[in-house]
């Protein structure tokens, strides 16, 4: 049995110039994940379910657990001293961690502290996503530009899934590994080494309740998934948890595609590029899958704002490629006026 901490240190040798800062930063994320996990596990007993009454920059009412998770991750990153700045779904502006220890830290972190907020109160799996970049600014507190980097610049990324078990899955650009939290010892232990997503699958994940608003290409792809054809194991199975991390984790293990497309009312989709699409795209690509906005690789998309939204087609390579063909045929980029 190897713990996350032991694995991180062991893998440090993959990076000849590593001085342990990234390892310690990953450790800090692991610590915050354990604290959040403890609250989630007994959420019904503690006064932590329900709305906080505060509306965040997304125009969504923050859940109490959104706020709690945000505080725990920011405080762990702040006291850990390896991160100088955080961009969070729950904060309109970047958060400067200008404590003596973190002021000159080399890394910046983008985070969705609690993903799948609509599922918190109903005991359905939720998650946390994180993206780590090397800062560009040389000294002092760090600046907005440090976080507005393309997904290709990520040095590490991952997610935590708080489900029937709690797992932390991450990559540093050398494959994807998964660790399951063993509550009896309070440690994340390696349970899924070198995860590879199947090249194709029979699961599609999309909120079909929005069907009428979807681009024609997506409508056609859904119809393709629902046609009877034994040779291609269709109709596929529709699975949609409504927590992106949980839907993605299932598809990572079993094969499948998750789509959150643009719609007439949300021409750029719903999900946020910096702390939802980019970290999960890095994971999926490192596991051998594919992630695009229907036209372009997610990791190559220019980042201009912290909370910018992007449509996403992510999962098994063959399924994403086919969905892209439907988009190219029925919803060519110019028609959808996608910038
Ligand atoms: O209810 P919808 O429109 O299908 O959206 C569900 C999607 O929105 C999200 O909940 C957005 O994330 P947050 O909960 O972090 O805001 C995703 O996890 C999920 O896949
Ligand atoms: Mg989210
Ligand atoms: Mg969230």
UniProtKB/TrEMBL annotation:
Origin superkingdom: Bacteria
SUPFAM superfamilies from the UniProt entry: Carbohydrate phosphatase
Cofactors required: Mg(2+)
Residue positions binding substrate: 115-118, 207, 240, 270
One annotated GO biological process: sucrose biosynthetic process
Gene Ontology CC terms, in alphabetical order: cytosol
E.C. number(s) listed in UniProt: 3.1.3.11
UniProt-annotated binding residues for Mg(2+) 2: 112, 115, 276
Cofactor: how and how many bound: Binds 2 magnesium ions per subunit.
Family per record: Belongs to the FBPase class 1 family.
HAMAP family in the cross-refs: FBPase_class1
Protein's name in the database: Fructose-1,6-bisphosphatase class 1
């Amino acid at each position: 049995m190897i713990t996350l901490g032991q694995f991180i240190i062991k893998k440090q040798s993959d990076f000849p110039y590593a001085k342990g800062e990234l390892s310690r930063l990953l450790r800090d994320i692991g610590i915050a994940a354990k604290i959040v996990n403890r609250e989630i596990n007994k959420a019904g007993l503690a006064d932590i379910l329900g709305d906080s009454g505060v509306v965040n920059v997304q125009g969504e009412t923050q859940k109490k657990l959104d706020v709690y998770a945000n505080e725990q991750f920011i405080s762990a990153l702040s006291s850990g001293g390896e991160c100088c700045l955080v961009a969070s779904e729950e904060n309109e502006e970047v958060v400067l961690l200008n404590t003596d220890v973190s002021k000159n830290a080399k890394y910046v972190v983008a985070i969705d502290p609690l993903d799948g907020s609509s599922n918190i109160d109903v005991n359905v799996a939720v998650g946390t996503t994180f993206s780590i970049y090397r800062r560009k600014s040389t000294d002092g507190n760090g600046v907005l530009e440090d976080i507005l980097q393309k997904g290709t610049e990520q040095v590490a990324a991952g997610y935590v899934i708080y489900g029937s078990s709690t797992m932390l899955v991450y990559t540093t650009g050398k494959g994807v590994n998964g660790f399951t939290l063993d509550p009896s010892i309070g440690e994340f232990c390696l349970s899924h080494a070198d995860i590879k997503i199947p090249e194709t699958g029979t699961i599609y994940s999309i909120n079909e309740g929005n069907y009428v608003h979807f681009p024609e290409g997506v409508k056609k792809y859904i119809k393709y998934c629902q046609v009877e054809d034994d040779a291609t194991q269709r109709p596929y199975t529709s699975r949609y948890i409504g927590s992106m991390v949980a839907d993605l984790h299932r598809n990572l293990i079993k094969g499948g595609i998750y789509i959150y497309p643009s719609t007439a009312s949300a021409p750029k989709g719903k999900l946020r590029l910096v702390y939802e699409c980019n970290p999960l795209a890095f994971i999926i690509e490192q596991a051998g899958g594919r992630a695009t906005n229907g036209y372009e690789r997610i990791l190559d998309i220019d980042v201009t704002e912290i909370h910018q939204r992007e449509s996403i087609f992510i999962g098994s390579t063959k399924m994403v490629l086919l969905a892209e063909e439907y988009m190219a045929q029925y919803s060519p980029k110019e028609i959808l006026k996608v910038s």
